[in-house]
Amino acid sequence: MSSEIKLAAKKQQKAVFTIGKRKVLRKLLFYTTLGLGALIMIIPFLWMLSTSLKEQGATMTLPPQFIPENITLSNYSQVAESFPIWKFLFNSLFVAVSSTLGQLLLCSMAAYAFSRLHFKGRDTLFLIYLATLMVPLQVTMTPQFILMKYLGWLDTYQGLILPGLFNAFGTFLLRQFFLTTPKSLEEAAFIDGASHFRVFFQIILPLAKPALATLAIFSFMQSWNNFLWPLIIVSNQDLMTLPLGLSNLQGRWATDWNLLMAGVVISVIPILAVYLFAQKYFIKGITLSGIK
Amino acid sequence: MVGDKGWKKWLVICAFLLPNFIGFLFFIGIPILASLGLSFTKWDLLTSPEFIGVENYKAIWHDAEFWAALKNTLLFIILYLPTVLVVALGIAMLLNKKMKGRTFFRAAYFIPVISSWVAVSLIWKWLFNPAYGLVNYFLSWFGINGPDWLQDPNWAMIAIVLTSVWKDTGFVMVLFLAGLQNISETYYEAADIDGATPFKKFLHITIPLLTPTTFFILIISLINSFQVFDQVMIMTEGGPAGSTTVLVQKIYNHAFRYFEMGYASAVSWVLFLIIFIVTLVQNRLQKRWVDYEQ
């Protein structure tokens, strides 16, 4: 009898032990997979950094040096001497910040009109706005280029910034948000004799902060990373943004990877810094907009 | 004021709407119509445009390069889309558990998303370097002699697809994560009581309830992949031997290299039409597989 109980207890112990072991094994597999994936995501960036710190010959060795034997910053100074890289950085920043601020103002104002003001043809006009969202950029880029040419806006900041300000997406996003905010506050303000402008700036906009943050991140990223439009309208180096400038670096130093990677590092760092500060908004923004 | 009548009311409307509307008309509305008009002309920007009817569209029909570009774009989509969906869903499933280091992993997968395409393409061009790139070095550990990725017509598109999957996984993953978090825990609890295996739960709960998200991702990714350009421009410029020339590359070449504004516009309208039809078909088909019952 007692031996039977002992045997059962032993069996149970063994079972518990296998379950525990399986659990550990599963956890191990779980973290290994995730870790491996994360490594694949991060290694290219580390490799970029490592290459940018290498001397000329050290990029072409086998096996590759993961940590450079002689760490040098000379690539960065050479990039800065040969290209106006700080100018690229400034241009990118200037264009991205002005596009973002411009879009926030223009889109929120139009969104207010589309959600709060009543006039004939409002919904038809909004539908037309929406319909243009389906038209790919490639359809408008040729006439836009011709327009820029005739306005004399090739190689200008206004040419870089203005056409991007008017995408219907921002208006759409903010209108949807305004529609969900309660009207009681504004109605009270109107009774107190407030104008539409006061209501807009002092009630609507403060309430819309999350949506505005989403749109801000979205338009900043879009503008910061834009390549095709600057490629089309800018040929003067002093007006190039970072992506276009980088592609020029490639034209000059096709195989000098240490120099190229130094340029790439300079272009990646600012947006990475912004991202690490505002990670939550980035992810929210992407989820909401579904657009890169 | 709410009750304002007449010119005062219109003044308010104009003040709010006009700045946006004028720009919209100027930079979006008119260009769309102009592009349609241009597609019926021949114009090199030097002489005046010449109306040629549907000649451009006829020319496209007989343009072998157009069909090659369409084929390359479709090849890109066929290779890229399922891969990025499966990889991103897998990672999203793993990250959808309460666990240590979740924020770190999510951040890691997201870094490529925020980097510019130009930066990412340059990094990967270096990684794909046949002699000194890391990709072939890692392959050599397994005794594999890696190809000359970007110079080999058989491999160049695959290299571009791999780069694109790498860059976009984080983006698609975040969308999937949002969808997964919308699935109520009660379904899984009920399945647990019935003794369902993890695989069965995945197949019968996760997949069906995730279809609205999958549909959304599919629509967006498909539209985006028809417009693939930046990575191609930086990594191969459409080569070698035209093996990676995609539709947008072709539009770019005609408009800004050969200055054939009319022809470029016509190709862009064909692209628009393709995207439009594909999106429409997807919308029609969604009833068959998208499950909105939640």
Automatic annotation (TrEMBL), chain A:
Location of this chain's protein in the cell: Cell membrane
Any one cellular-component term (Gene Ontology): plasma membrane
TM helices/strands, residue ranges: 28-49, 93-114, 126-148, 160-178, 199-221, 257-278
Family indicated by similarity: Belongs to the binding-protein-dependent transport system permease family.
Annotated source species: Fictibacillus aquaticus
GO BP of this protein: transmembrane transport
Name recorded for this polypeptide: Sugar ABC transporter permease
Topology term for the membrane: Multi-pass membrane protein
Pfam families linked to this entry: BPD_transp_1
The UniProt record lists the keyword Transmembrane: yes
Start and end residues of each ABC transmembrane type-1 domain: 89-278
High-level lineage: Bacteria, Bacillati, Bacillota, Bacilli, Bacillales
CDD domains in the record: TM_PBP2
Assigned keywords, A-Z: Cell membrane, Membrane, Transmembrane, Transmembrane helix, Transport
Highest taxon of source: Bacteria
Alphabetical list of InterPro entries matching this protein: MetI-like, MetI-like_sf
TrEMBL record, chain B:
GO annotations of cellular component type: plasma membrane
Cellular compartments annotated: Cell membrane
Domain of life: Bacteria
InterPro entries noted in UniProt: ABC_transporter_permease, MetI-like, MetI-like_sf
Gene Ontology biological-process annotations: transmembrane transport
Membrane-topology annotation of the record: Multi-pass membrane protein
Keywords: Cell membrane, Membrane, Transmembrane, Transmembrane helix, Transport
Domain ABC transmembrane type-1: start-end pairs: 70-282
Spans through the membrane: 12-34, 74-95, 107-127, 155-180, 201-223, 261-281
Signal peptide as annotated in the record: none
Record-stated family: Belongs to the binding-protein-dependent transport system permease family.
Name this protein carries in UniProt: Sugar ABC transporter permease
Organism: Fictibacillus aquaticus
